Amino acid sequence: MPRLICALAAAILPAIPLATPLAVAAAPAGGEVRATLSSVTPWESDTPGHGGYSGIEVTADGRRFFALSDHGTLASGALDREGARLTGVGRTGLWPMADTAGAPVSMRLRDAEGLALASDGSLYVSFERDPRIWRYARPGARPTALPRHPDFAGFNANGALEALAITPDGTLLTMPEDPVAGRFPVYRFADKRWSQPFAIPARGAFKAVEADIGPDGRLYLLERRLAGPFGFATRVRRFTLGETALSGEQTLVETRPGTHGNLEGLSVWRDPDGRTRLTMIADNNFLAIQRSQIVEYVLP
């Protein structure tokens, strides 16, 4: 995170929000599936601790959400909609995250990045510094630490576990932000043990920042690229999950730098009209020149 904040000093101009570019379509790679921008909704609040949101999970009805801050807090909120289209955001709760001893998580260890909502309502959180995953039975609860894969200790301090997803049967998938030898190794936690069954090819300078399992059972990966003074570019790819391999790679969203802010969180769900929505949240890095916002794309 410190490395990213320093880089943001060169990105002041694109961080100032422009008019909401509704009905803009992401440029697909190679004629692949096209996702269309549905809404860009600011999320503003004067409450201390608001900001730094790096993860989001939307409930199945699209009306409620949890948001994770990399400053060690977890928020809940309501999503106002006209039909399926997002029109407003409001917070309904804010909790400091506890460590495994029940105390507030320390500044050194609070770099929470990935969020996954299990079918039983529990929340899994991945941390970038001191790479690890904790399970919270409910917001504000004392977490349980999962065992760590030996590889986690070798990840870059500011390029470790950001992406985190959970399947309907409770299997966890995670990967480092930084690629390893041109790939993002995917780590799977099932039956109380880790494996590393496959990897995602890194393409260009994009880094992996979040993942989710969609209602179609496929793995969705949110990636970002910092393009200096031009701001951030965003990409979303999806893959068909197999036991030992991924297949069917498709690029759903790929934006020009500066189109959106620092999108770090992703939740994939199906609206009442049967369309798949990609709900993403931007991390304002607690900088006045950036805003927290929720961005939604819709698939045909």
Description:
The protein is mainly beta. The chain has a single domain (2-298), classed as Tachylectin-2, Chain A (5 Propeller), CATH 2.115.10. The protein has 2 helices and 20 strands. The chain has helices at 2-8, 12-15; strands at 36-42, 53-58, 64-69, 73-82, 85-96, 112-117, 123-127, 132-136, 144-145, 161-166, 172-176, 183-190, 193-201, 207-213, 219-226, 232-241, 246-254, 263-270, 276-282, 293-298. A 4-stranded antiparallel sheet has the order 1-20-19-18, with no helix packed on it. The longest helix is centred in the N-terminal third of the chain and has 7 residues, at 2-8. The protein starts with a helix and ends with a strand. 43% of the residues are buried.
SSE layout and pairing:
Layout (H helix, E strand, L loop, with lengths): L1 H7 L3 H4 L20 E7 L10 E6 L5 E6 L3 E10 L2 E12 L15 E6 L5 E5 L4 E5 L7 E2 L15 E6 L5 E5 L6 E8 L2 E9 L5 E7 L5 E8 L5 E10 L4 E9 L8 E8 L5 E7 L10 E6 L2
Antiparallel strand pairs: 1-20, 2-3, 3-4, 4-5, 6-7, 7-8, 8-9, 10-11, 11-12, 12-13, 14-15, 15-16, 16-17, 18-19, 19-20
Brief characterization of the structure:
This protein has 300 residues and is mostly beta strands. It is 4% helix and 47% strand.
